[in-house]
Amino acid sequence: MPDVCKAPAAADALLEEERFQALSSGEAKIVEAAASRIFPTTDTPGAAEAGVVHYIDRTLKEIYPKQIASYREGCAALERNAKETFGRQFTELAPDQQDKILSAFEKGTASGLADASEFFALLRKHTMEGMFCEPMYGGNRGLVGWRLVGFPGQQFGYEDPYINRVVDLEPIAHEMPFSQQEALDGRKS
Question: Under the phi-then-psi rule, with left for phi > 0, alpha for psi from -120 to 50, and beta for the rest, what region is 153?
Answer without folding.
Answer: left
